[in-house]
Design a protein that fits this description.
The structure holds two protein chains of two kinds. Chain A is an alpha/beta fold. Chain A has 15 helices and 17 strands. In chain A, about 50% of the residues are buried. By secondary structure, chain B is of the alpha/beta class. Helix content of chain B is about 25%, strand content about 30%. In chain B, a hairpin with a 5-residue loop joins strand 5 and strand 6. The longest helix of chain B is centred in the last third of the chain and has 16 residues. Chain B is globular and about 45 Å long. The chains are: A alpha/beta, B alpha/beta.
């Protein structure tokens, strides 16, 4: 393909910028790509791609899955470029490619693993044309960016190449129907013994049959629309998983997976169901890619979920559990509320969920809190809920609407005042739910807890 | 009172269901009818006092238009008779003459109950907040939409926008009001974030003073939001 002179200038400029930023010890994760794309918007069209590209997208779990896949491949000797420490939008991917390519725009790396923001897929997938694409799930997310699930589905569906092999979630009747003509493998989790169907979620994005629009009948709901459904009118139903978690052995920390009729055993990296889905998708991708069962196990047995998303430790007699509950993402936040309610013992909850970026210039749209299942927190074992932030009065109203006793709720305008309201004598566990961009306040809260509860163990 | 909630299983995109829960808690003695897509609306054969319809996706808009098409005269009669309607978010669009796709020019025929033209551009999503007013009462709300609308008859415009965008980028009006028919693109928990309006509306249609659920807490949050929205350093989006 003949490349225009502007392309070469964009590559040269981008590479120069990366060099300079590195000299200044700054992260060149987005800016060089952004500048080059502004100068030459067709950059990704002309830049050569590695021979093999794996991409990971979806509403929830894509960062965790990308990290797991990268770890498994890296641990098995594969060499590749990735945006693991960079942006998952077009500017981040352009930066990585610019950093790797020659001045003629030829990629040096033979392989790439890219996490792709689903909303940016239109600016990435048509050019990157991945050989494999994992879609973890499609669920409701920020209404400002992602509108609704149907919109993201259509958007993704129209930007996936015919040649891409899809790794899809069999338990998600929405994302599992992406590009039905493409080669594919499904992962999923069988309903576990004594696992109750969860009909409590406010959000269910799969109400109507994607084929005939009749009401779907759910045989089992794990959360939101994740589960098994069928259409009584046309027979449409969830596909069968090629990588099906048959048994979650919490005691021995093992996952028993039925891989197309063969039983395989894998380590249970984390016990939360969303992390088991993440692990299953990483297993499905790497196995389809050609990594052996033993070699996947070898790496997963050492894997851990990154501490910025989940952490637990003890201070004196209290266990502190910190969970990322992405603000404006009602499904992820509901999952954390559910997990909080399921923790054993008496608990106090500190919530700092406001969007730091929105709060800096505008007033956050809090409609999402009415599609988040705060009802899970209406539980006898939760003795206190403290909400900190400018919008605390809205959260108070929401928690009251969830049926939570007014006496249990404390609110304050500043996130970092929350600890002063804590009554530690009433709880064995202190659970902190925080938004992705609230880590500064989180760090202060952690220090305050150490001071209030005694030394960290 | 009888309250009919239309298609809440699919018309709950942006927390609109909060309105339904608020109505339930504020009107504990009322009868609530939940009509699912495919069911004959209860209002077709029975007297109802209040109908609620929330936000929906583009494909569901088509289904709901088909569903309500046989009842559009009935709906018009009910509006004339003073039956209360609360329509939030993208639920509004279906009541106009058509929804025109900005890209293809294709038009989806609406119910035609209101003189409103809706244009949809799936490549451009507008988000922001709105501070508005009607009859000396301040309203707050949020928009996140692909559409822009024009309401031809000024007397049918619901709110005068003081900060933020109206129903289109050049307008300072938001929503539709015909008698007790209130329809607004402001999405999600509109009734919760505007508790004084909700109280007035429910009191008017029930003929007695209604104490809405968690009234003090809701008013406190409403006042804080108004203060926030009025702050010149707080941008609309």
């Amino acid at each position: 393909m003949k490349k225009p002179i502007r392309f070469y200038l964009a590559v040269f400029g981008g590479k120069l910028m990366i060099k300079l930023m590195r000299l200044m010890k700054r992260n060149a994760t987005n800016l060089p790509g952004e500048a080059s794309l502004i100068f030459f918007p067709k950059l990704l069209h002309y830049i050569d791609m590695p021979e093999k590209v794996i991409a990971i997208t979806g509403t929830n779990g894509k960062t965790t899955v990308s990290n797991m896949i990268s770890d498994i491949l890296e641990g098995n000797g594969y060499e590749f470029i990735s945006n693991r420490f960079g942006g998952n939008v077009d500017t981040g991917i352009a930066s990585i490619l610019l950093s790797d390519c020659t001045f003629s725009g030829k990629c040096r790396a033979k392989m790439a693993v890219f996490e792709v923001d689903e909303r940016s897929a239109g600016r990435i997938l048509p050019f990157v044309k991945p050989d494999y694409l994992v879609c973890t799930n499609l669920q409701r997310d920020s209404m400002k960016r992602n509108a609704h699930t149907e919109y993201i589905f259509n958007f993704l569906n129209s930007n996936i190449s015919d040649k891409t092999t899809l790794i899809l979630n069999a338990d998600d009747i929405i994302s599992s129907s992406l590009r039905p003509e493409n080669k594919r493998a499904y992962f999923g989790i069988k309903r576990q013994p004594n696992e109750e169907s969860n009909d409590k979620s406010i959000i269910c994005d799969a109400v109507l049959c994607p084929k005939c629009h009749a009401h779907l009948v759910f045989d089992f709901k794990r959360y939101n629309h994740i589960g098994l459904a069928h259409c009584e009118k046309c027979g449409y139903k969830n596909p069968t998983a090629n990588y099906c978690v048959e048994n979650i052995d919490y005691e021995n920390k093992k996952l028993i997976i039925n891989h197309n009729g063969t039983t395989e055993e894998y380590p249970l990296v984390e016990k939360r169901i969303t992390d088991i889905y993440n692990t299953s998708s990483a297993i499905a991708l790497t196995r389809e890619f050609g990594v052996s069962h033993e070699n996947v196990v070898k790496i997963l047995s050492k894997a851990k979920i990154v501490k910025t998303r989940y952490d637990n430790y003890r201070i004196g007699n209290h266990e502190i559990i910190i969970s990322l509950a992405k603000g404006q993402n009602p499904v992820a936040c509901s999952g954390v509320c559910n997990a909080v309610s399921k923790e054993s013992g008496n608990k106090a909850v500190i919530m700092i969920l406001e969007d730091y970026y929105d709060a800096q210039r505008t007033s956050e749209n809090l409609a999402w809190i009415y599609e988040t299942d705060f009802e899970y927190l209406n539980d006898d074992s939760i003795k206190q809920i403290i909400v900190g932030g400018k919008r605390c009065s809205d959260y108070l109203l929401r928690l009251l609407m969830a049926g939570i006793d007014r006496e249990k709720i404390s609110i304050c305008d500043s996130e970092t005042d929350t600890v002063s309201f804590l009554k530690p004598e009433n709880a064995e566990k202190i659970m902190i739910m925080y938004d992705l961009f609230n880590t500064k306040s989180l760090d202060i809260i952690k220090t305050q807890l150490e001071e209030k509860l005694g030394g960290k163990k | 009172m009888t309250v009919e909630i239309l298609y809440s299983e699919v018309c709950n995109l942006f927390g609109d269901i909060g309105n339904v829960r608020y109505l339930e808690k504020s009107l504990p003695d009322s009868e609530f009818i939940y009509t699912r897509l495919g069911d004959k609306p209860y209002f077709a054969d029975n007297k109802v006092n209040l109908i609620y319809l929330g936000s929906m996706s583009e494909s569901v808009q088509e289904l709901v238009i088909k569903e309500l098409e046989p009842y559009k005269s009935k709906i018009s009669d009910m509006i004339s008779d003073g039956t209360a309607f609360i329509i939030t978010g993208s639920g509004v669009d279906i009541f106009g003459k058509s929804i025109v796709d900005g890209d293809s020019g294709e038009a989806l025929k609406g119910l035609g109950i209101v003189d409103m033209k809706v244009t949809r551009d799936m490549n451009h999503r507008y988000s922001g907040f709105v501070l508005a007013e009607r009859d000396n009462l301040e309203f707050v709300g949020f928009q996140a939409q692909f559409t822009q609308s024009i309401i031809e008859k000024p007397e049918r415009r619901f709110l005068k926008v003081k900060k933020g965008r109206g129903m289109n980028e050049n307008s300072d009006y938001e929503g539709i009001k015909i008698n007790n028919f209130y329809a607004t693109n402001l999405l999600g928990p509109f009734l919760l974030v505007n508790p004084l309006f909700t109280k007035k509306l429910l009191s008017d249609i029930s003929g007695k003073e209604i104490i809405t659920a968690f009234e003090n807490e809701a008013v406190e949050a409403y006042k804080k939001r108004i203060e926030d929205f009025k702050n010149p350093s707080i941008k609309v989006h």
